[in-house]
Amino acid sequence: MSRIVIWQIFTRLFGNNSQNLPVRNGTIEENGCGKFNSYTNEVLKYFSSQGATHLWFTGILAHASKTDYSTSGIPQSHASAVKGNAGSPYAVRDYYDVDPDLAVNVTRRFSELKSLIRRVHANNMGFIMDFVPNHVAREYKSLCLPKGKTGIGESDDSSKAFSVSNNFYYIPGCGLSGEHNWEDYVEYPARATGNDRFTAEPKEYDWYETVKLNYGVDYSNGACIFDPRPDTWDKMTDILLFWAENGIDGFRCDMAEMVPVDFWHYAIAKVREKFPGTLFIAEIYNPGAYRSYLEWGGFDYIYDKVGLYDTLKSVTTGQESAAAITRCWQQTGNCGSRMLHFLENHDEQRIASDFFAGDAGKGRPAMVVSACMDTCPVMIYAGQELGERGMDEEGFSGRDGRTTIFDYWNPDTLRRLYNHGKMNGSLLSDDEKNLQKFYSTLLHICREEKAIAQGKFFDLMYVNPASDIFDAHHNYAFLRSFEGELILVVANFSDRQTTCRVFIPEHAFDYMEIKKSDHCCYNDLISGFRYEGILHPDCPVRVNVPAFSAAILKFEI
C-alpha cells in the first residue's frame, strides 16, 4: 500500500457559499452550510493536488439538530437534547440516513452523497466517514431502516438495567433529570449517557445529548457476556456493511476503546469478508490498549494522540526539549507504523490558536517530524494548511482554539479558499499561500520519496548531544533510507536560524546500508538549497535550518 495522506473535512463548514459574516448562535439560514454538491471536481482536485489520498468527511450521518425538516418527513429534535443549533455529528439519530443540512434537495440527500462518493473515486481518492459505535442521540430512531431489520432499542426490555439482548442501559424507576435543563423532554426510564454515566442525572459537562450503547458489558460488575452474541453486535455490523456496500472505503471509528475489542474482532472480520480493502482507524487514547485493538481487534491504524501529538505540541510550545521525541517513539515500540499522525483534527486546538503555538508557521518543524518519521498515515485538517486559528466564538462553542462542531459557521480561511468553488487562491494572503505551498511540498515528499514512504528510520539524537554545533534542546535529527536512497531530516523548533553539524555514527551506516563518500551532494527538498560535502562517520553533515522550520536533505551517493 502507498503512503496514506488523509484530509479531514468538516463537511458542513467547507463549501459554505454564505455571503454574510457568521453570527453567533446563527441558524442555517443566517450562517449557511456546505453541501455535498459543493465538493465539485474542481474542489476535489485541490485536495488531490495538495497530496491527499483519502478524504475523511466528518458529519455525514444524520444527527440531532435544531433545524426543522419536518416538512420533509424528518421529526424535529427536541431542543434540550441538542448541543448548539447544528448539533454534534456524534449524536447520531439514524445510522442509515445522512444529514439533511448537506443536501440541496433534502428528499434526494442519499443520491447527492452517492454522487459525491463517485466524484471522490473519480479523482483517485478514498472516501472515509465516521462510524460512531459507542453512543447515539437521545431521540435515535431510524427512518431509513432497511426492510427486515429491527431498529436500535426497539425490542429492549427497559425494566432491566442490563440485558445482553438490550441495545441500551437503563436506570429503572428513574426519569432523566439533573442539572441540565430538560424543559419538557421526557425519558423514562432514563438511559445511561454516552460517556459511561450510568445515572439518571448527567452533568452539564457530560455527553448528555447521547445514550450509551450496550455491547454485552455489564458495568455493574465488570462482566462481559459475549455468548450468546449481543444483539448490538449484529445491528452495528449490519450498519458497517451497509455503508461499505455504498462505496465507503474506510471508517474512522469514534471512541473505539469504549467498545469491547471482541466486537471489533467480529465486525471488522465480517466487513472484510466482503470488502477486503476497507480501512479501519481507531480513536484510542490508552496506549496500553493499542496492541489489543490492532492485533485482535483488526484495526489498521490508531490515533497517535497521547504519544507523538502531545509530545510535538509540548516541544513546539517550549514545554519539553526536542529530545522528548526520542522517548516518544521508543515508548510506541513496533506499533509505530500502525499509528495515525496528526497535528490538528476537530477535537484538538488549531496550531495557530492562542492555546497552541499562536502562529501557524511555528508548527512547521512539528509537521515535518509528524509526516516524515515513519511510514504510517499522516492527517491534515482542512484549514490547517492556511493557518486557520480557530479563535472564533461561534455560539455553543466558545473561543477555545477549536473550530466548532456544534454550530453553523463559515470560517474565514475556508470561505476565502473555497471562493464559490473557484479554489483559485485569489482571496488568500501571501502568508497563507506560502504555508499552503509548504504543506503541499511536504505531503508530496512524504508520499513520493521512497526513503520516507517505505524506508528505515534511525534516530540521531544519541550521537548528537547538546553542543556548540548541535542544539539538542531545539533540534531533532533522524535518517530515513530505502534501497540506497538516503534522507536526513533536521527540525528546528527554535525562533532562530541554526547552522548545525549532524554526526551519523558507523552503526547507522551499517543498519541503513549507507555508502560512504568522500564527495557527495545533497539537496534540501523543502528549500531547494544544494550542499556539497563528505558522507562519513568522522565528518558531520552541515546544514542550515531557518527558525521554526526543517531541512529534508536527500543525498546523491
Report on this structure:
- The structure is a single chain.
- The strands form 7 sheets. The chain has an 8-stranded parallel beta barrel, surrounded by 4 helices. The protein has a 6-stranded antiparallel β-sheet with strand order 17-18-19-24-21-22.
- The relative contact order is 0.11.
- It is built from 13 helices and 24 strands.
- A hairpin with a 2-residue loop joins strand 18 (475-482) and strand 19.
- It has 557 residues and is an alpha/beta fold.
Give a short synopsis of this structure.
The chain is an alpha/beta fold.
Topology, element by element:
Elements: E1 5-10, H1 28-31, H2 41-50, E2 54-58, E3 61-63, E4 92-98, H3 109-122, E5 126-131, E6 135-137, E7 170-171, E8 190-191, E9 210-212, E10 217-218, E11 223-224, H4 231-245, E12 250-253, H5 261-274, E13 279-282, H6 290-296, E14 301-303, H7 305-316, H8 324-332, E15 339-342, H9 364-372, E16 378-381, H10 412-418, H11 430-448, H12 450-453, E17 456-459, E18 475-482, E19 485-492, E20 498-502, H13 506-511, E21 517-524, E22 530-535, E23 541-545, E24 549-556
Parallel strand pairs: 1-2, 1-16, 2-5, 5-12, 12-13, 13-14, 14-15, 15-16
Antiparallel strand pairs: 3-4, 6-9, 7-8, 10-11, 17-18, 18-19, 19-24, 20-23, 21-22, 21-24
Give the distance, in angstroms, between the N- and C-terminal Cα atoms: 27 Å
Count of helical regions: 13
Low-confidence stretches: none
Estimated helix fraction: 10-25%
Beta-strand fraction estimate:
15-25%
The strands making up the biggest β-sheet line up spatially as 1-2-5-12-13-14-15-16
Q: C-alpha Rg, in Å? A: 25 Å
- Class based on secondary structure composition and strand pairing: alpha/beta
Oligomer type: single chain
Biggest beta-sheet profile:
8 strands, parallel, barrel
The overall pLDDT average reads 96
What is the number of strand segments?
Answer: 24
Which word captures the global form? globular
